[in-house]
Specification:
mainly beta, five-stranded mixed sheet, 7 helices, 33 strands, 46% strand
């Protein structure tokens, strides 16, 4: 009997749920298809004013805003639409705009705003009635005041600060006479921190002051700019070494030279940021191989080019490099060993030159240690791919002993280039088999 009662209760619950579902479906169908609408009120929708800063200003007018200004800041709207749509509508999707482009006179005006929605699905929602907002238009007054800068903090020892540089020294203020007339100047504050060691540059907001230096709240004042850029150059005095870039080669090494630069350094002053990682001034280049070809000693004068924007406190504009080899001799050896490289495919080559005098230089220990057997002359055949016959070809000299010795001059050898005989040529006999 209990089981039968439970079955009856279950069926009853199912019937109730089914009835609710059917009723809701019928209600939804009627609500959607019979164009039933509802009204919903949205409060405190912000108002956006167009053509305020440019259009009104060009006409010598301004919109008076703020508390007790008489200009509407928000609006309450009653909107009508289908229940499903209007309940989905968020007030942030509503835009209320007032166009001031037709305003040409001062005084309070009543203007009908434009009401739009950020999503197209709300296009069927309508405004329940006409709305107007109040705007208070006043004559626009202008006043130009000085910009002052206060610096706080300190620069590090060994550094000095220059004069503050401002992006502009005056700023134009706009507003009603009662708001802008008390302003005597505006002030920015540049805080350079503790022990500043490089140039500081920042965009700063400003505050308003009267002629007695009292801070004003600035309500109703409209500046033409929001920020003033302040730059404080920080300088450093620094000694920079004068250096030359040396190019070495076999037989011509820097450690085999005695050299000096006069002067060795100069003192400059400049922007700390620019000189932060600068320790040297490069005068120029010196090729030690070229030095051996001219003389074992060399002297050259270089202009001293300091970093841009810096001052040369030493006053010296040119530096002199003096350099000489401590131990340098030259000799001539007769090369008797020859080879070739880069032989073209399908070619054979024979070096005809049997002896070639070679000029060598280096330290006395390295040069005197050499014999003819330590030198090999290598002919370069890379440019003779399609050639046959006897040619003077360029050659390089290689020192095989490992001595750090340089070679002076350029060299050529005689080489005979010919086609490799084909194995199918009847004039070429195959080796006999024994």
């Amino acid at each position: 009997m209990a089981n039968e009662n439970e079955k009856v209760d279950t069926k009853k619950y199912l019937y109730i749920l089914l009835s609710i579902f059917v009723a809701a479906s019928i209600w939804f169908f009627v609500d959607e298809h019979n164009n039933r609408t509802v009204e919903v009120e949205f409060k405190d929708i912000p108002i956006t004013y167009r053509d305020v800063n440019e259009g009104l200003s060009e006409r010598g007018l301004m919109l008076v805003e703020g508390e007790d200004s008489g200009t509407s800041e928000t609006i309450d709207l009653t909107l009508e639409g289908r229940r499903r749509l209007i309940t989905d509508l968020d007030s942030s999707k509503i835009t209320v705009t007032v166009d001031l482009s037709d305003i040409t006179e001062t005084g309070k005006k009543w203007i009908r705003p434009s009401i739009t929605y950020s999503e197209r699905k709300f296009a069927d929602i309508t405004v329940e009635s006409s709305y107007y907002v109040t705007v208070n238009i006043s004559e626009l007054n202008r006043r130009t005041v000085d910009v002052r800068c206060e610096v706080t903090g300190n620069v590090a020892n060994g550094y000095s600060a220059g004069e503050v540089q401002l992006s502009q020294t005056e700023v134009e203020l706009r507003g009603q006479a009662k708001d802008i007339d008390p302003v005597s100047f505006v002030k920015v504050t540049l805080d350079i921190g503790q022990d500043a060691s490089e140039t500081i540059s920042r965009d700063l907001t400003f505050q308003y002051y009267d002629r007695n230096g009292n801070l004003l709240d600035g309500d109703g004042v409209r500046p033409t700019v929001e920020y003033i850029q302040a730059r404080l150059p920080v300088f450093v005095t620094k000694e920079l070494n004068l250096v030359v870039n040396f190019s070495e080669a076999p037989g011509a090494r820097l450690d085999n030279t005695e050299w000096d630069i006069f002067p060795k350094s100069i003192t400059v002053s400049g922007d700390a940021s620019q000189l932060k990682n600068v320790n040297n001034i490069i005068l120029g280049d010196c090729d030690l191989l070229k030095l051996t070809a001219e003389s074992t000693s060399y002297e050259a004068t270089f202009p001293i080019i300091i970093p841009e924007g810096c001052k040369n406190l030493s006053g010296v504009t040119r530096a002199t490099l003096k350099i000489r080899f401590k131990d340098m001799i030259s000799t001539e050896l007769l090369a008797v060993n020859f080879d070739y490289a880069n032989l073209p495919e399908g070619k054979t080559a024979t070096i005809l030159t049997e002896e070639l005098p070679i000029a060598l230089f280096g330290t006395s220990a390295d040069v005197t240690s050499l014999t003819s057997d330590d030198i090999i002359v290598i002919a370069d055949l890379s440019d003779y791919t399609g050639a046959s016959g006897t040619y003077s070809v360029p050659a390089t000299v290689k020192v095989t002993s490992g001595a750090d010795v340089g070679v002076s001059g350029t060299y050529q050898v005689q080489a005979r280039i010919s086609e490799t005989p084909s194995t199918n040529d009847p004039m070429v006999q195959a080796p006999s088999e024994e």
